[in-house]
């Protein structure tokens, strides 16, 4: 998230919080696709991480991008920490370890998403390559220790870094050593949100298997195919994971609000300053817990929006739905991730088919699949079917949805070809992580250094 929200509208009751979510509902004609992707910057001479400061640091990249694009800088205590397009059509931000993120504009098609990501990567290369910097597209940092990983000067990250070790063993790894590709998608009503949320929660582990690309840590195989996904199993279970109430027949906005209210907060922002609020939940905040501790210590809608951005379930509900299960990866995967989910969720026939496929899946079964996928990938199973079997069916449904959408580019091609890299995974029967491990044991000579060549932007 590039910039935290400021909205001083007071909150008088919890009903308003559900209304806030419901206000995200849009007619189908207004549905858009917002894609986010992160990558690790590194110095090409030795594959070392890039610090924030210095003439060849991340600050220099951001300043170069600002000069090139004319985007507005986001400043935190005197440091540039991101850029935002003046009309809100996209932003560049920094994750805690320097991971460089594009939060894309809301677009109509995957064709536009690919053009956007191509343009962004070309722009950032133009600035970074003269500095001897390139970017690595993987789900986990394959080489650097946590101590070697730089830390970005962003106030909210200081609060999170202090809090994470109190609630799980892998929170700092999540913050500093992982990258993802995500897509944000719209809904038309509470019923439409429910259908999309339930399908996407059930199928999120299939996406994790298809996109698994984090098999190395600190220069060696880590025993997992998606180390990034496994990290989320012990980061902060109060605010992450598969949420059981989503499986309820009548799940709605109010249910998500009730859960979110009892999750500890990270911060409240007042007049540009972040106040550590990890000792209270949002419900306690609403009941006056911070009234005397911070300036203007009663909650407003900006506080609520910011709190929602600090929740990390498999699918996150804001005024849209965020798909959070995929590892970062090369350029083709940046296009494949939104194609996968748009095909499943933005076409009525495809969404009904995905519902039929997953209708009787229980919370316990979905949780068990989610627990197996980081290590087993496509070999994980639900009932008597492997993730590989399910992925084949799910990709066919996604292809159907993209075909039905019939969004053509200038050459007359629809969006289905963006699924090709995932269909290759299914045809091969092995994840990209397993292919990388095979290379590590053969052509790479038991070294992760070649990954910085093969998976660099």
Tell me about this structure.
The structure is a single chain. With about 450 residues, the protein is of the alpha+beta class. It has one domain (about 15-445): 2-Layer Sandwich (Creatine Kinase, Chain A, domain 2). It is about 40% helix and about 15% strand. It has 17 helices and 18 strands. The protein has helices at about 15-20, 60-70, 110-130, 155-165, 170-175, 190-210, 225-230, 255-260, 280-285, 300-310, 330-345, 350-360, 365-375, 385-405, 420-430, 430-440, 450-455, and strands at about 35-45, 50, 70-75, 80-85, 90-95, 100-105, 135, 180-185, 215, 220, 240, 265-270, 275, 310-315, 315, 320-325, 380, 385. The strands form 5 sheets. Strands 1, 2, 3, 4, 5, 6, 7, 8, 15 and 16 form a 10-stranded antiparallel β-sheet that branches. It has a two-stranded antiparallel ribbon with strand order 9-10. Strands 11-14 form a two-stranded parallel ribbon. Helix 6 (about 190-210) crosses helix 14 (about 385-405) and helix 11 (about 330-345) packs across helix 14 (about 385-405). The longest helix is centred in the middle third of the chain and has 21 residues, at about 190-210. The radius of gyration is 21 Å and the shape is globular. The chain starts with 14 loop residues before the first helix and ends with a helix. The model has no long low-confidence stretch (mean pLDDT about 95).
């Amino acid at each position: 998230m590039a910039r935290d929200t400021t909205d001083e509208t007071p909150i008088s009751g919890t009903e308003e919080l559900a209304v806030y979510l419901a206000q995200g509902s849009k007619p189908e004609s207004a549905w858009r696709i917002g894609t986010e992707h992160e990558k690790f910057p590194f110095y090409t001479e030795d594959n070392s991480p890039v610090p924030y400061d210095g003439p060849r640091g991340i600050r220099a990249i951001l300043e170069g991008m600002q000069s090139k694009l004319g985007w507005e800088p986001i400043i935190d205590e005197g440091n540039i920490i991101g850029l935002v397009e003046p009309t809100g059509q996209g932003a560049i931000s920094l994750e805690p370890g320097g991971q460089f993120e594009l939060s894309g504009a809301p677009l109509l098609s995957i064709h536009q998403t690919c053009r956007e990501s191509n343009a962004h990567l070309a722009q950032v290369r133009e600035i970074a390559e003269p500095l001897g910097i390139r970017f690595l597209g993987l789900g986990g940092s394959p080489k650097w220790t946590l101590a070697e990983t730089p830390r970005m000067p962003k106030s909210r990250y200081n609060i999170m870094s202090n809090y994470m070790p109190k609630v799980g063993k892998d929170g700092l790894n999540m913050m500093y050593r992982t990258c993802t590709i995500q897509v944000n998608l719209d809904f038309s009503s509470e019923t439409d949100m429910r259908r999309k949320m339930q399908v996407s929660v059930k199928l999120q582990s299939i996406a994790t298997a298809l996109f698994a690309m984090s098999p190395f840590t600190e220069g060696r195989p880590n025993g997992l195919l998606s180390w990034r996904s496994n990290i989320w199993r012990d980061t902060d279970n109060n605010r992450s994971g598969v949420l059981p109430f989503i499986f309820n027949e009548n799940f709605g906005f109010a249910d998500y609000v009730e859960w979110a209210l009892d999750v500890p907060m990270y911060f409240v922002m007042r007049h540009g300053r972040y106040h550590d609020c990890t000792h209270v939940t949002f419900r306690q905040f609403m009941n006056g817990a911070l009234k005397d501790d911070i300036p203007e210590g009663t909650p407003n809608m900006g506080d609520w929006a910011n709190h929602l951005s600090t929740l990390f379930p498999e699918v996150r509900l804001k005024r849209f739905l965020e798909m959070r299960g995929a590892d970062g990866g090369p350029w083709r995967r940046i296009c494949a991730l939104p194609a996968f989910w748009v095909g499943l969720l933005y076409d009525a026939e495809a969404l009904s088919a995905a519902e039929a496929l997953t209708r009787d899946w229980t919370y316990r079964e979905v949780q068990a699949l989610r627990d197996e996928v980081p290590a087993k990938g496509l070999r994980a199973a639900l009932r008597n079917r492997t993730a590989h079997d399910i992925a084949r069916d799910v990709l066919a449904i996604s292809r159907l949805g993209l075909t039905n959408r019939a969004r053509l580019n200038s050459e007359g091609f629809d969006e289905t070809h963006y699924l090709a890299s995932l269909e290759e995974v299914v045809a091969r029967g092995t994840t990209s992580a397993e292919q990388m491990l095979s290379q590590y044991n053969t052509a790479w000579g038991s070294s992760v250094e070649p990954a910085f060549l093969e998976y660099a932007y």
